[in-house]
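Backbones bend. To wit:
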Amino acid sequence: MHLMPGSPAFQTRLGALPITTYEAGETVLSAGTRTGQLLILKTGKVSIVKENVEITKVSEPGAVFGELAALLNKPHAADVCALETSQFHVAKATAFIGDDPAALLYIASSLARRLDSANQALIELKRQVQSGEPRNEIGQTIKKMEALLTPATASLVYAGYPYDPYA
């Protein structure tokens, strides 16, 4: 299928986007704000924080930030803070998603993969609770779920390199 995220057309579109750089300690996105932008990690590492709790750290090139706010027409749900110098491709969300089927497929695929992985972790969590597993094991599964629901697993294919969130 020519609309796959790793396609040359998608890579060309991604490469044509402007790049923005954030230094360590800078806020990339703030919870409660509306930027109307999609940020696609090119290089670097960020922390995702919600209600003063760090959910995960993301360093996978191709991870998308701002997609839920754009698709649901809501403010950003979490803070994204640069942990080191980080570069992002920046796209106007409505134009990128609305005008480019490959971009829409990329975002839809990443969200679908995150949801599928989180569903599997939820099944595991329910089994652990029902069988009386120790709290530390249940806690590990909850941390796994948190990580699965963040953009860390968004990078399905970026610059030709497949990303497997199960690896």
Summary: Confidence is low (pLDDT under 50) at residues 152-167. The beta strands are 19-22, 27-29, 37-43, 46-50, 53-58, 64-65, 79-82, 86-92, 157-158, 161-162. The chain has one domain: 8-162. The CA atoms of residues 1 and 7 lie 9 Å apart.
